[in-house]
Amino acid sequence: MQIIGNQVIRLQDVDSTNNFAANLLNTTLPPEGTAILAYNQFGGKGQRGAVWQAEPGANLTLSVILYPKKIPASSQFILSKMVAVALADAVDEVSGLSSRIKWPNDILLNNKKVAGILIESAVSGMNLSQAIIGMGLNVNQQNFEGLPRASSLAVEAGKAFDKEQVMQQLFSLLNYYYMVLQRGNTAKIDELYLEKLFGYREDGLFRHSGGIDKGKITGIKENGRLEIEFSTGRVMEFENKEVEFLY
Ligand code: BTN
Ligand 1 pocket, 151 CB below 6 A? Predict the structure, then answer.
């Protein structure tokens, strides 16, 4: 059953498709899977209060409304994993390249970030009741001045892409993995996420708690925290931005 992207609201200019989706949810009951797509976002939001910059018309900036069932608020990171897996898969399918997921949910091609995810969810009782899945995927943008770690599908693959086709591929894979999740197969999502996870079980250098240590990522906790085993044998857990990879 295809639910994602059956309805696409196309906007020319909007501050943020996530904000637009939130307003829509406050005033109406949009069907599950409704997508909001912007040609230009002038107040795009990134993770942890950052700004998401995207050249107008060159990329995909969109949000999808979901009403997930039986996902406890305490383990909502599974939704973030599911979206990262779908987005990474879509990137691979259309580009023919092999992306990695950088914890928590950046999508990398050749170690450069081509996509990011911002999920804003609401809780009712113990479980999630709604989620706005915001996704920024750099498709055809060529210049990333001042953003040395950012890139696009076009830069990495050396050719331009049809944004519409990329979006349809993304909807189809999001739909597929959302069904896997809603059938309760979280183990599959966990497995696919770890398969794509940048640095998983690989030796690396990490800056944390004011110092730099050797270690490797050994897992992701249910609450989304990153688990690292340091060469000293000490195992620690981190929130986003508490630790930096220095490969
Ligand atoms: C990140 O910091 O990596 C997350 C970026 C998320 C950007 C997308 S673009 C569409 C949606 N609307 C927003 O304002 N942000 C998300």
Answer: no
